[in-house]
Amino acid sequence: MKKEEYLRKLKFQLIDLPGEDLEQIEDFYEELILDGIEQGYTEDEVIARLERPEDVAEKIRAEYGGLVVYTAHGKSKEEKQGYESVDQIHTVRVESENMRIRIRTVESGPVRILFQPREGQDMVNFKEEDGVFSFEHRRKSNSYLDWLSHFFDTQVLILELPMNFAGNLWVRTKNSSVSVSGLGNLSLGEFISNNGKIHVKNSHIEKLAVQANNGKIDLSNLMGMELEASSGNGLITARECRFTERLVMQTQNGAVTGKNLIGDNISMQTCNGFVTGNIIGNEKDYNIESSTKNGFNNLENVSSPERSKKLRAKTHNGRIQIEFTM
Predict the structure, then answer these.
(1) 208-266, pLDDT tens digit by residue?
(2) What InterPro entries does the entry give (predicted)?
(3) Which residues is 313 bridged to in the sheet?
(4) pLDDT digits over 65-101, tens only?
């Protein structure tokens, strides 16, 4: 079975779910399959290790059908499936290990984490104090074989934020990915993954920091004041991103590419990879600092007090090709 067929069958089993939820489920399983291919498995091998679409759909319905929440002010006597805030929250901190994290918004309601700890495998520390919502997850076993098995584990930790949440958000994970979508007006967002990719889209975040130590970063349809995206060993891509004060993309071993970027201070740097893309604006407004030792460079260095904006594009081994479009 191929990816398209697997996703089609899964969507058919869940066709009565709300469109937004169905789209998020499809995105998650597509990402799961693509992650496997990036790790060197064939598409057929990845899908063979997944549960049948019918079985996945049954578990999804069971999870979302009977949610029992757990608050820091009182434990439920029933099996815990969710963790939610009671008071007004201004800061959310989430830290996890070997667990995919998805962040999404809902129209209204408390800050909530949907997660079912498994007996003998997961440890959770949850508290709410002075407007700070903190959730920490750890695995009890950390052997290599245990980590490898989690790659094919479809369990996911979901963080739900109300659309009017405008506070601070810190999310860190180890050996897994972070996916963020639909944040309306965050003051500060920081997303870190030690060994996994990070995808942030369709959000307004005034100060955004994204760090993937060994993974790629994918940014799309974002706006705010400051963006700093860094990866030790991975590709960084940004599409339709507007950050007025500072827009920085930097990696060591991978390409840096941007499409339809808007900003007064843009920096795109790597050591071993190309730097490409386009900036919406007039080239004559930018002071330009660019260099590559082994590759083509279409930019000319310019420094003039009459130019108010800045562009820095650098690599050691790769081409630089950045266009300006009005």
Answers:
(1) 999 998 889 999 999 999 999 999 888 999 999 999 999 999 998 899 999 999 999 99
(2) Toastrack_DUF4097
(3) 268, 290
(4) 544 555 665 554 444 567 889 999 999 999 998 888 8
Query: Phi/psi at 222 (nearest 5 deg)?
Result: -125, 155
Q: What is the DSSP string of 243-308?
A: EEEEEEEEESSS-EEEEEEB-SEEEEE-SSS-EEEEEES-GGGEEEEEE-SBS-B----B--TT--
- Torsion-angle region of 179 (φ positive above 0: left; ψ -120 to 50: alpha; else: beta): beta
Place of tokens 């291919």: 37
Neighbours of 173 (CB within 10 A): 24
- Cβ(200)–Cβ(182) below 8 Å: no
Q: Closest by alpha carbon to 176, among 25, 21, 35?
A: 35
Please, which residues bridge with residue 109 across strands?
Answer: none
Which two structure tokens, joined as six digits, stand for 190? 């920081």
Q: Within a 10 A sphere around the Cβ of 319, how many other Cβ atoms?
A: 16
Nearest Cα neighbor of 93 from 128, 146, 135 is 135
pTM, entire model: 0.82
